[in-house]
Every structure is written in C-alpha cells, then in structure tokens.
TrEMBL record:
GO cellular component annotations of the record: cytoplasm
Stored Pfam families: Epimerase (PF01370)
Superkingdom per UniProt: Bacteria
Protein's name in the database: NAD-dependent epimerase/dehydratase family protein
Ranges in a coiled coil: none
GO molecular function: aldehyde dehydrogenase (NAD+) activity
All residue ranges annotated as the NAD-dependent epimerase/dehydratase domain in the record: 2-218
Length: 321
C-alpha cells in the first residue's frame, strides 16, 4: 500500500492519478474540511481516503497501517504575514511526525520540498542541489518552513530513515485551474499589462509526479533532487501565454520600485478584506531576480525527458479559455 499526504492539492492529485492509473493500491490523507479534487473524482472506487491531520500522530499512525511507501506532498502555503509562524510550525511539526513514524516502521519516503529551500548561486552560475538556503537572512515564511521540514527529513535519514527529497521549481499545469501557479495564467488571460525582469525554473506537474515515482522505485536514498524542466524569463512565459489566449502580451517592464508599490498595496487590500495578498514582498522581489537551475542530477538519476514548457502553456491556455 502507498500513502500520499496532500492528495487534495495540485501536485498530490496528479501523483495520485498517475499511481492509480498504473495499477497501484493507494491511500490518501485529507483534512475533514477538504473536498476531493475533480481530477480524482473518476477514481473514487480505486482510492482509499482517510481523514488525518498532519499534527495528529494517532490519525497518521492509523493511516500508515500496511503502508510501505509514503509520498509527503502536504504543506500549508500562505502569503499572509499573520500565518507565517503557524505555517512554519504546522509544516515542520507535520513533517517531523511523519518522519518519526516512517523511521520507526521502516517505510520509504519521498518528501516534497521546494526550490524555495535551496540557496542562491553566484551570479551567472546555475543553482544545484549543493546550494543551501541561508536561514538567518531569509524572511519568506514558506521558504523557512520548507527548509526546516527538509531538515527534519535529513534528521530522520541520519537516524536510519530511507528517504529521498525533491525540490521542484515553479510547477505548472492545466489542472491547477485558477489557483496557485494557475493564478498567474488567469491574470494574463484577463489582460496583464506588466512583465518582470526575473528568470525562474518551470516544470510540468506530470513530470514532477513522474520523477517522484521514478525515485521511489529506485534504490536511491539520502539524496535531494532539483526537479525543473527549463529556465525561462517571466517575460517569455507571459508573452507565450498571452499569445495562447490570443491577446496582446504584457509590454511594460515592472521595475523593482513598481513591484515595491505593488506588494505594499496588495498588503493593504488583504488587511482590509481579510484575504490573501495577491503578491507579497518576497514574491515581488523574486520576480526581478534571475535564478537558473541545473537539472542534470535528476536526468542522470532516472533518465527523465522533460516535457517542453511551451506544450504545458498551450494546455493551460486551452483549459482556461
């Protein structure tokens, strides 16, 4: 039996679909308040759903009965400054609980971290798995939560846990809908006027799921892998998406000072409405930074051929039209 945490999320749902269509027996955790994603509705009879909060050790222990492999995709993602401390605590404690149980029961784990937990390379260099985030200078709550969660997995590995860590770049795909990375494409569809000068890694959600399964079924342990298909400028992505929607591409460069105004305005609106800010300080600053990633380690490990990002963008545009 295979357990997936976070199967109601974008990546977790794609992973569950991949596993169930390949004939695997899977069990998925969900919170009592979470619905089952539309992507998995056709597979209801083939998936065993269990209610288990990551902070509830007893519920987690019950969910792990008969399990030999765990994919840990669950994580709280929020841009609200008020959520920073509870988000870090929830993500780290939940991971620690799962690590402890898997180590105790001899269950193999693939843990989903993020490029947010990987440090910056020198200008002009590609970021590799050997770069590490400098925690003392990091302000992004999500990045800190992913770094500290990863540290829990490394602790578990030192204590005998059989685990592999994946650090995906910006995951995109049609099944995201209008939330998460899908919100970027929905904003473009509505007529985004600005683009930023930054560069980041992009990867199709199917490829992340395939890499996770490939690593799980290998004899690799105690390693971390950047999962990223292509390094692309935000301008090229927004232009391609706009063309896919048949509208004018963003033509105005949003310089860092403009992004500064943008995140401050978003924070004020979020405070007044009680919602999530459309962009936070960290995201605004990152949008103008060039970060390019080396994907040779994962390609050499499992022989993955990444899907071209322009194909994924086309699929997203068709789904949102």
């Amino acid at each position: 039996m295979i357990l997936i945490t976070g199967a109601t999320g974008f990546l977790g749902a794609e992973l569950a679909k991949l596993l169930v269509t390949s004939g695997s027996n899977i069990r998925c955790t969900k919170r009592a308040t979470s619905g089952i994603p539309a992507l998995l509705a056709p597979f209801q009879s083939q998936i065993e759903w269990v209610e288990a909060d990551m902070l509830d050790i007893f519920a987690l222990e019950n969910a792990l009965v008969g399990v030999t492999q765990v994919y840990h995709c669950a994580a709280w993602v929020s841009l609200k400054s008020a959520d920073k401390k509870p988000m870090i605590n929830t993500n780290v404690t939940g991971t620690a609980n799962l690590v402890n149980l898997c180590a105790e029961k001899g269950i193999r784990m693939v843990h989903v971290s993020s490029i947010a937990a990987i440090g910056l390379a020198k200008p002009g260099d590609l970021t590799t798995e050997n770069h590490h985030l400098e925690q003392s200078t990091e302000n992004d709550g999500y990045a800190i939560s992913k770094l500290e969660s990863e540290m829990e997995v490394w602790r578990g590995i030192a204590e005998g846990l059989d685990a592999v860590i994946v650090n995906p770049s910006l995951i995109i795909g049609a099944s995201a809908g209008k939330v998460g990375s899908g919100a970027l494409f929905e904003t473009i569809r509505k007529g985004l006027k600005f683009y930023t000068a930054g560069t980041i890694g992009f990867v199709d959600v199917h490829d992340v799921a395939k890499c996770m399964v490939g690593l799980m079924n290998s004899d690799i342990t105690a390693e971390r892998y950047i999962i990223s298909a292509e390094n692309r400028t935000y301008q090229s992505i927004t232009t391609e998406a706009a063309n896919g929607f048949g509208i004018k591409p963003p033509a105005i460069l949003a310089k860092p000072w403009l992004m500064e105004i943008g995140w401050r305005g978003a924070a004020v609106i979020a405070a007044l409405t009680g919602g999530n800010p459309a962009i936070d300080k960290t995201s605004a600053q990152a949008a103008s930074v060039t970060r390019e990633f080396d994907n040779s380690k994962i390609r050499n490990a499992i022989g993955i051929e990444f899907k071209p990002i322009n194909k994924t963008i086309k699929e997203i545009c068709e789904a949102l039209h």
